[in-house]
Amino acid sequence: MNFRTGYLAIVGRPNVGKSTLNNRLVGAKVSITSKKAQTTRHRIHGILTTEDCQFIFVDTPGFQMQHRNALNRMMNRSVTQTLSDVDVVLFVIEAGRWGSGEDEIVTVLPDNRPVLLVINKVDRMQDKGQLLPFMQKMAETYPFAAIVPISAEKGQGVDELLKVAAGHLPEAPPVFDADDITDRSERFLAAEMLREKLFRNLGEELPYGIAVEIEKFEQEGNLRRIHAAVIVDKQAHKGIVIGKDGERLKRISTDARKDMEQLFGGRVWLETWVKVKSGWADDERVLKSLGYE
Ligand SMILES: Nc1nc2c(ncn2[C@@H]2O[C@H](COP(=O)(O)OP(=O)(O)OP(=O)(O)O)[C@@H](O)[C@H]2O)c(=O)[nH]1
Q1: Ligand 1: does its nearest atom lie under 6 Å from the Cβ of 6?
Q2: Which among 86, 78, 162, 154 is positioned nearest to 118, based on CA atoms?
Q3: 225-238 pLDDT, tens digit each
Q4: Pocket flag, ligand 1, residue 20 (CB < 6 Å)
Q5: How remote is the CA of residue 124 from the centroid of ligand 1, in Å?
Q6: Which value, to the nearest 10 degrees, does the dihedral of the CA atoms of residues 193, 194, 196, 201 take?
Q7: 3-state DSSP call for residue 230?
Q8: Gap between the Cα atoms of 101 and 12, Å rounded
Q9: Residue of the CA atom closest to atom 8 of ligand 1
Q10: Ligand 1: does its nearest atom lie under 6 Å from the Cβ of 22?
Q11: Which end of the chain is more exposed for a tag (fewer CB within 10 A), N or C?
Q12: Which of 11, 13, 19 to probe ligand 1 with, by most ligand atoms within 8 A of CB?
């Protein structure tokens, strides 16, 4: 078989396990995961190179149907753009669940691209006998090129998924070096790491409209000096992020720094502070300056 290279988009409503799948596929933590929905806002390219294939994964943001502000409009637009641009679409759903979120996604699926239905979280299915009938029902819902049950968390079915996906990629030489995990810069990854820690540490208190801006990223030998601003929408949110006596932001920064050191393979000096930019989530111009597409 000649070498195959292609782009794959992972779509699905929030929380179905897209980031977990992406991480499982590329074997490195390039995409953030969180129990809280709606954590992935940027397109992330994870790359997997095998002996005869290069898969370039594009992680798309979850659809947002509740808050119709500028940020969410841009997120939905970015999903549509991504899908018309790839070789294969992986549409991830949860085992046994098909709801209005899925109906909405079907409306933006490209009809000239193979769409693989990935049924995730099969490990959570209590009655395994339900899987086959569910797959049959799904086959009648949309002309999927294939239906593959997996558990992104446990790794089940993932090899089969890759095999099926490979069959839909065009014959082409690799685009990236075999060692590349991601084509995103370390600066971007640093922002993602910090953002993940904010999501995890703030939990339900997480203010709507929070972002991270890397203001300075310098490398001296194996030491990286990073200045990061946490952008919040309202003055009142600043205190929530900082916490009593600054304890919370300190903990978030320490957690993020440890992850960065592991990912970059070197020491990291991280300074974080909180900045208030009123109405940023409603302002497309500000969004663009923060790197949202
Ligand atoms: N039991 C089980 N849980 C899973 C599996 N895959 C993902 N999860 C969990 O589901 C939750 C959501 O996973 P994510 O990967 O963050 O989901 P996502 O689709 O990227 O979510 P957004 O970024 O909000 O769009 C996390 O708590 C995961 O640990 C799986 O195969 N089995």
Answers
A1: no
A2: 162
A3: 999 999 998 888 99
A4: yes
A5: 12
A6: 140
A7: strand
A8: 8
A9: 17
A10: no
A11: N
A12: 19
State in Å: Cα 219 to ligand 1 middle: 33
Q: Which of 220-229, 245-254, 275-284 has the lowest mean pLDDT?
A: 275-284
Ligand 1 atom 7, closest CA: 17
Per-residue DSSP letter, 84: T
Which domains does the chain possess?
4-166 (3.40.50.300), 186-289 (3.30.300.20)
How many CB atoms sit inside 10 A of residue 13's CB?
22
The pLDDT assigned to 249 comes to 96
Distance 177 CA to ligand 1 centre (A): 29
Q: Tokens 């992986």 sit at which residue?
A: 90
- Torsions phi, psi of 110, nearest 5? -75, 135
By DSSP bridging, strand 115-120 and strand 88-94 are parallel
d(CA 197, CA 195): 5
Distance of CA 200 to the CA centre of its chain: 15
pLDDT of res. 93: 97
Q: Which atom of ligand 1 is nearest to the CA of 22?
A: 15
Token look-up 């839909």 returns 168
Distance CA 246, CA 243 (A): 5
| Mean pLDDT, the chain, whole residue set | 81
Q: Half-sphere exposure of residue 289, counting CA atoms within 13 Å on the CB side? A: 9
Model-level pTM greater than 0.90? no
The alpha carbon of residue 217 and the mean position of all alpha carbons in its chain are separated, in whole angstroms, by: 23
14 pLDDT band (50/70/90 cuts)?
confident
